[in-house]
Automatic annotation (TrEMBL):
SMART domains: S_TKc. Pfam families: Pkinase (PF00069), Stress-antifung (PF01657). Residues 351-638 form the Protein kinase domain. Its main location: membrane. One of its GO terms (cellular component) is plasma membrane. Residues 648-658 have a biased composition (Polar residues). Keywords: ATP-binding, Glycoprotein, Kinase, Membrane, Nucleotide-binding, Receptor, Repeat, Serine/threonine-protein kinase, Signal, Transferase, Transmembrane, Transmembrane helix. It comes from Medicago truncatula. This is Cysteine-rich receptor-kinase-like protein.
Amino acid sequence: MISRRCLLFLLLLFFILKSEASDQLIFRYHECGNFTGDSAYQINRDTVLELIYSDKKIDYGFYNFSYGEGPDKINAIGFCRGDINQEECRGCLKKSATLLTDRCGEQKEAIGYYDLCILRYSNDSIFGIMETKTSKYFDMEGKTVGNDAFNQTLIDLLDELKSVAIDGDSRKKFAEKSVKVMNESSSRSDVNDTIYGLVQCTPDLSKQECTECLDSAFGNFSRWCMKGCMYLGPSCSFRYDIVPFFQSIFNNTESPAPQPSKVIAPALSPKPRKGKSRKITTAIAIVVAVVVAGILVMGICIYFERRKSRPEFEGQGKNEDESEAETGDDLKVGDLLQFDFETIRIATSNFSDANKLGEGGFGTVYKGTLPDGQDIAIKRLANNSKQGETEFKNEVLLTGKLQHRNLVKLLGFCLQKRERLLIYEFVSNKSLDYIIFDPIKRADLNWERRYKIIKDIARGLLYLHEDSRLQIVHRDLKTSNILLDDELNPKITDFGIAKLFDANQTHGMTSTVIGTYGYMAPEYIKHGEFSIKSDVFSFGVIILEIVCGRRNTKIRDGDNTEDLLDMAWKNWKAGTSSDIVDPILEQGLNKNETMRCIHVGLLCVQEDIDVRPTMSSVLLMLNSTTFPLPEPSEPPFLMQPKRALSISLSEQYSGPTKSTDSGSGSQFTQGSTSKSSVTDQ
């Protein structure tokens, strides 16, 4: 007999599924800014938002209103995707207005993004102004990769759609189309992908502004997306996918009488269905979901009801192998493999010293070769590492869900009795600190390569903070946790102490401070407070280390002792920043880029967390030679431990050194053993 609790759960599940399935709008994200407690402004805001979603005069999906006077004046824009009808547009804007006023109740600026509409308001003028600062990319088909034929077809499609959209008038700048991908090896189009594409700009932009907005959007999507991508920005947006998403494909809805701009008709797209077909499909999906979920829950309930009388339900009768199997099941993520220990033992020649790459607080890292010839790196948890057990699970659960060219790829893991192994792609050129601080090897990193490494690390960090499906704070970013592949492309590694943030979480607190001195932000050292801005601080230190070719440790020059941040600040104030640039970079050095990097590095290591830029701003600063940079203030005192070793200038280029600190931070640095961790209970 099924218990009452199971029946109650089934009933609750039914209503949840029914409620979620009936809501076809997908909310992506929002941002708020500029606090205000002014009730007059809030009244004006509510008034203008209601005007937008209740207005029935404008039928092109673009609504621009202003309301109020002086400091209480509010400007608002509602913008819907060009393929939806008026009723859907106003419904989307109404939901967005409700959400924004709830989440940004006492702030003067807000923007919210649904798949089908964008709503924004501000006390500043926003009409006719091209803006990209709150834009985001969403990977719609993250597990599939396009081939050359797919990529070329996609580029041609987006260029065609852009040309049509920018030629739109003041009512609509929108285009959509679908095309078949024809592989060179096949003459049959029906066995290849169809790409569905859609682009649009807000109609208040000029042709030139629309072009600039879309060019900016197209220029970056390949870093974040594969066979499906959606870009949402305040002034323009685009989407492409290998599955139909146009509303015109699912609904035979009449378009507004006047055609504001040319729309490319979907080529080779599915046959339009009648308006009721979508409702029928949705209803069927709801019923199937509820029935399947109900059967599943009933099965689970019956299973546990029967197990209650068995001693092993309370954990009795389990052997070590069974416990490991359950742990392995808990850790399965995406496409990660659970490797057999014997396979890894053979791949590493029984974990021989000849295959050892490095050691750290986690344990030892080995190189291995699988039977198919693939090289791998294996991180082996030390048997006496209690902290490593937690870090092992943390790294599997976090890293297994991340896919980015500037992050080391986790291939799988292994659990057998007391053995805990993490298996990664092998990165041949070891860690950045192994090269950048070596007096001979660092000559391989000319300025062009160093500048690219800086920007690529920034892209990987931006992915962790803003562009992945998770928001992750690394907490131990440093040069020894940056690996370099065959082409010297950087890859961020070691997520053992990383933290996953909720959607609305801005910071976290801990009583156990784990990290590396010289890279930890002051608020983390003093108060255990960490956030994405803590990683920004660490990144600022890395920039200065790469430019200067020196570690951020105490440097003794005669009777004076200072760290790299002190040195960089003093030379910046004195106008002699060129004196701290790695002298080996004399040939081929771009002085403007090096000075800009030092400037950005100092901005990242500001003591005031609110003054430090976000990684999206950092990338903009690094990629633009004209973007104005604010003046930095003096970096904070780094609170080095008394037992930390001070090294002379002559030792700066002596390569990695082992730390005597006893810590519990994890380490995955191929070839580097430099680690300094502290636990503050």
